Amino acid sequence: MSNKTWRTSTQLVQGGTRRSAFDETCEGLFLTSGYVYETAEEQEATFKEEIKRYQYSRFANPTVGMFEERMAMIEGAKYCLATATGMAAINMALMAQLQAGDRVVASRALFGSCLHIINNILPKFGIETELVDGHDLNQWEAALSKPTRCVLLETPSNPTLEIVDLKAVCDLAHKVGARVIVDNVFATAILQRPMEFGADIVVYSTTKYIDGQGRTLGGAVLFNDDALFKDEMMPYFRNTGPAMSPFNAWTQLKGLETLDMRVRKHCENATLVAKFLEKLKGVRTVNYPGLHSHPQHKLAMAQMGCGGPMLSFEIEGGKEQAFAFENALQLIRICNNLGDSKSLITHPATTTHSKVDAAEKARLGISDGLLRLSVGLEDAEDLKEDLAQASKVVFGA
Ligand SMILES: *Cc1c(COP(=O)(O)O)cnc(C)c1O
């Protein structure tokens, strides 16, 4: 049985494993929507919540349960609810607690679909939302001078790798009674545990580094508050149905087993590639929290201990040069996903952030020359050679 005193690498491999009567070594994949009862009385007692047992896979499933327990262990959280996608997790984390008249403050450097929820969906239900520049504590302080229900932020952010001071923002939020939700996709629990800085809820797109090999979609919501679980999250989860597929949970349990070593290698490669890009012809700026040139380098190191697995860089010229650069790459593939063992590049202005208007793009630093690189697990020398030959094609020797 799982032991909460295990160290993280052990929890990643063995945490939450429960074996069936067949004593299988590998976690079982329980592809079942329902569960049978010995008697009608047992079924009645289950519905009266007098007995706790599997009832329907929208509520709970053994494979998904193992994934949730392992995720909770590595985050140091009491509760984890696994969802079908990262967006289902973020949507639930917000909608389960909010009602008309509430106020939400968020950092503006958010994943595109998170911005859509803040700007377009929540206001439709009478929820006031305000965006701030996440790196500017004065803006947080001003926005958090009024009663607020939730704060949503992402650090490091997508795609400009901006860092938010978790401790400072959590302190400001708690003074006005707000719960802080941190989207921890880029760092993962291996590099950063937001709850240690005061965050109330941590959300993941497990599609990214937790699957880690670009196979399945998934999400997770983690927290400690009993009332939040019982009165808000669980009723929302059971009745609106964002549940994760058992197959995806099984795949991602396998992903967790190698998460620690993968994330460390991603960071090592990202650091090598970032340093190389800083000197590459045609590259104007490199956004990577692990570089001394990053304006929040010290804060990034204090919160994550390294620069993380993602970077972005701006090349000279605009969209035409950026597209030519992407098209010239031979090893690094064009793809808007991230967190894969394969290195993936995308042009945020025309993909992940194409729905954001020009003024907001400018505020976010998403220029036409910006490219986002999810650094994979290949040999860093091959990645550097690919970037060098692309630079030669676009900018000459
Ligand atoms: C991908 C991503 C999401 C959304 O997750 P999906 O699994 O695609 O729904 C949210 N936040 C961040 C930072 C992401 O990278």
Task: Tell me what you see in this structure.
By secondary structure, this protein is an alpha/beta fold. The chain folds into 2 domains: 225 residues, Type I PLP-dependent aspartate aminotransferase-like (Major domain) (Aspartate Aminotransferase, domain 2, 3-Layer(aba) Sandwich), CATH 3.40.640.10; 137 residues, Alpha-Beta Complex (Aspartate Aminotransferase, domain 1). Helix content is 40%, strand content 14%. The protein contains 15 helices and 12 strands. It has a 7-stranded mixed β-sheet with strand order 1-7-6-5-4-2-3, sandwiched between helices. Strand 2, helix 5 and strand 3 form a beta-alpha-beta unit. Helix 13 packs across helix 15. It is globular and about 80 Å long. The protein starts with 7 loop residues before the first helix and ends with a helix. 49% of the residues are buried. Pyridoxal-5'-phosphate binds next to helix 4. Pyridoxal-5'-phosphate (PLP) binds next to helix 4.
Brief overview:
This protein is of the alpha/beta class.
Note the beta-strand portion: 5-15%
Order of helices and strands: HHHEHEHEHEHEHEEHHHEHEHEEHEH
Classified in CATH, the superfamily of the largest domain is: Type I PLP-dependent aspartate aminotransferase-like (Major domain)
Query: Distance between termini?
Result: 60 Å
Structural domains: how many: 2
Number of E-type strands:
12
Radius of gyration: 22 Å
Principal-axes shape call: globular
- Total count of helical runs of at least 4 residues: 15
CATH topology of the largest domain: Aspartate Aminotransferase, domain 2
Which CATH first-tier class of the largest domain would you pick?
Answer: Alpha Beta
